[in-house]
Amino acid sequence: MQLKRIYEAASRQDGYRVLVDRLWPRGLSKEVAEVDLWLKDIAPSDALRKWYHAHPVQWPAFRQKYLNELGEAEALQALNQLHEVVAKRKAVTLLYASKNLERNNAVVLKELLDGMRKPPRSTGPAGAAAAKAPRRAQAGRR
Asked: Which residues on adjacent β-strands are paired with residue 55?
């Protein structure tokens, strides 16, 4: 799975292209975007999106609040749908509009899905923390 800003041109390497933003990207037609699936409900709520835009240095807090939102019914359904897409396809690209390439909701989703599919790379403290993060997010959804 890879991440890509939706304003970048589509390529064969993208595979199945999934837009994970609540709002359609400004100035981009659906034909140019070449989106296979638009999961609006997996995106952060409008309130959280606006809060993070006003507080960009609060990345850890945004990440935690977003993981909590992913436990809500509509978001959880969309997350399950995304998990099914990733399980069935060799190449999946999560698309986002944010100008921040390293701190956006697609990054959180990729980390979460990668954690669900792979065991931690090491057995040290970093590996244990990586293994617990997705489980904590799942536990909050029950």
From this structure: none
